[in-house]
Amino acid sequence: MIKGDARGAAPVNAPSPIDVGPLGKRVRWGVQVWPVNGSIIKEELYRWLRLEQPVEEGTSYPAGYCHFPKYGAEYFKQLTAEQLVPRIVKGYRRAEWQKTRDRNEALDCRVYARAAAAVCGMDRFRDAEWKALDQQLMPVAEQKQKKAPVPPAQKPPSMRTGWLDPALTRNWLGK
Length: 175
Known about the structure:
three-stranded mixed sheet; two-stranded antiparallel sheet
């Protein structure tokens, strides 16, 4: 679980345990809530969006350069739907993110994906880690090229036929 928190000094701060569920009942083992400072991540993203694509062939892309597939214009409008606006709060100047349009789901998704990457350590991968990950995914790409026959779709299990692992259900419900 995540929660927006503009007070943190990092994009994602240490999780805090929560042991009360949505209905006010105690959750036996609790859950962890990760505070995400969206402001830091948005500033980083907007800085990366301003990076220039290398003109010379063979030149590497700058760190943080954003590669996008062919998205429509609406995606990029949503991605840039907020701006940093200075405000005076209790006599002090403070910057605050404000929406410039109603829809900003692409920006929110990008912020939370970046937070997840930070928690998993992907933002600190070196070339060796990326190459190893690429090698793990290579057989999958080769299989797709061979176009193996797709198995027939199976009917999803109903709630009454054990769609949840009983052990997990007992743990969650505290039985």
